[in-house]
Design brief:
With about 220 residues, the protein is an alpha/beta fold. The protein is built from nine helices and seven strands. A five-stranded parallel β-sheet has the order 5-4-1-6-7, sandwiched between helices. The protein has a two-stranded antiparallel ribbon with strand order 2-3. α3 (about 50-55) packs antiparallel against α4 (about 60-75). The N and C termini lie close together (about 10 Å).
């Protein structure tokens, strides 16, 4: 193994809870009952035909990404006026929390001489977020889907990262949390490790498994 690629959301970072973000964006206080209704509305909105359609190919461009999320937020009437503010939060570095074992894992991998890269389906440049949390210096390749007009598991994204890192796909491990997208790296000739879902922001993600795969 010569290189390790990491997904962003749900792998190294998790965004702050929606309840906290909604309260920060609204001008008036919100009690727990009202918050529960808005959160339930967001969950229900994921089944709304208009929201579902807006999610298609959402990560192929910045415009599509913004449209997908603001359409979803606006499916809840109380959140429609602050849809743009909620999207701005989504892009804000301070709204993302690294998992507790992210930094130690990246440090140990780098110390062994492995090259690290980020491959993410996303609508904005992630380097500011990593820099805000002082994790950017571990990476020498940044592959954002919106810059390539495609999404994982398109081999183009994985191949591009491997070339930038000077590693063959067979020498590279992709780490993520989506079996179809991150696990799809295997179709491009990489090894793949998929983390289970459900980790809360700031918790331990189980990234020590990556160290074991790297022989550490």
């Amino acid at each position: 193994m010569r290189a390790v690629l990491f997904d962003f959301s749900g792998t190294l970072f998790q965004v702050a809870p929606y309840a906290d973000r909604i309260r920060a964006a609204l001008s008036q206080p919100v009690d727990d009952a009202a918050m529960d209704l808005m959160l339930s509305g967001l969950e229900a909105g994921l089944s709304d035909p208009g929201v579902v359609e807006a999610q298609r190919a959402r990560d192929v461009s910045s415009k599509a990404h913004r449209h997908a999320f603001t359409t979803w937020y606006s499916s809840v009437p109380e959140l429609a006026p602050i849809a743009d503010a909620l999207y701005a939060q989504l892009k804000a570095p301070e709204c993302w929390v690294p998992y507790a074992d992210a930094e130690s894992t990246l440090r140990q991998l780098t110390c062994t001489g492995l090259a690290l890269g980020v491959v993410s389906d996303v609508g904005w440049d992630l380097r500011a977020t990593f820099a805000h949390h002082r994790l950017d210096h571990y990476f020498t390749s940044w592959v954002h889907s919106y810059e390539h007009n495609t999404e994982k598991p398109d081999p183009l994204l994985f191949d591009h990262a491997c070339r930038e890192l000077g590693a063959e796909p067979a020498q590279t491990l992709m780490v993520g949390d989506n079996p179809a997208k991150d696990g799809g790296a295997a179709g491009a000739g990489l090894r793949s490790f998929v983390l289970p879902g459900g980790a809360t922001p700031g918790s331990y993600r189980g990234l020590e498994a990556v160290l074991r795969l790297a022989g550490l």
